[in-house]
Amino acid sequence: xxxxxxxxxxxxxxxxxxxxxxxxxxxxxxxxxxxxxxxxxxxxxxxxxxxxxxxxxxxxxxxxxxxxxxxxxxxxxxxxxxxxxxxxxxxxxxxxxxxxxxxxxxxxxxxxxxxxxxxxxxxxxxxxxxxxxxxxxxxxxxxxxxxxxxxxxxxxxxxxxxxxxxxxxxxxxxxxxxxxxxxxxxxxxxxxxxxxxxxxxxxxxxxxxxxxxxxxxxxxxxxxxxxxxxxxxxxxxxxxxxxxxxxxxxxxxxxxxxxxxxxxxxxxxxxxxxxxxxxxxxxxxxxxxxxxxxxxxxxxxxxxxxxxxxxxxxxxxxxxxxxxxxxxxxxxxxxxxxxxxxxxxxxxxxxxxxxxxxxxxxxxxxxxxxxxxxxxxxxxxxxxxxxxxxxxxxxxxxxxxxxxxxxxxxxxxxxxx
Length: 417
Ligand code: SF4
Known about the structure:
The protein has 417 residues and is of the alpha/beta class. The chain is 42% helix and 11% strand.
């Protein structure tokens, strides 16, 4: 592919055409400086057209209730065998404490995921949802990745629709679109054999959408995938979203979040000889291409600040990104995982970063209902926020530790989308 073809793809986009899969491959591949400048400017203009100048974030907390898992994913630094000295499965007392802390911080969302613990039944998954909503009335439960839904369904042998409907009735608000890794079976098999295959991930997401449960969408990149693989992944998401939007219901992708693979302290980095995370140029390019590729289908493109730091995330706001994710207030267990950029960010820190980029900060719900400062739901910065955020707070700056990967396709389940 040539720079000429890449320019032609942008010309066609500007004329109103959808970017085809091979067009996305070209945009992801072509590194010419002048072309890159045009790509970023086009993505920024499209962002402005699609969602305006506001940049959103959500006040949320990560809670996970077990690190017991049997899957042994190569990129995971989180899971434990049931008899490991630091294995845990929290009871109601521990969870109550975590939910109360999140409530006191003023969260709108609890992001909750965990290991695939064979001892946990669907009843327990339901109980935990109910407990959270009893302690934090009205909180949005963004919980149970497709890997966990698969685990629950195989354990119960109930139809997928029944499982998801039961979870919805117990308070599940949305499903994280993690565990996708990359939706190319050949690559997925190499990096995570034993994980849910592409078709199963799609089946779970489609069914969630069909029963009215929104989901996010993600991709894990910067490992052994090619630009064509990334284009294929996005093409699958776009097709699924078009189908989901036809029903006009709540079930749909709310956002797309590219998640760079962190190669430190897991088997996958070592096995494939990956020593570094994707460079910023690669990271920025994917966000810009996603903004263009998902025109008219997925309006919100999020940058994962815990992966690249708040300074680099701020720069991404000028090339198509309109969302910075969540405050991700931590719970104590997060400390064991470490994090290159910390695990929590205060509302003030978000506001400063967004204002510094010349944009307008707003808060949002999980499903992108915008909460502006004059809205009673707005969570104003408080003087003690940073103390409340605990050990994981670093203001989005480097702390020098590593981030282990999990089935969420990103880091510790406690702090992902
Ligand atoms: S990534 Fe998830 S499923 Fe895989 S080992 Fe880790 S906790 Fe288990």
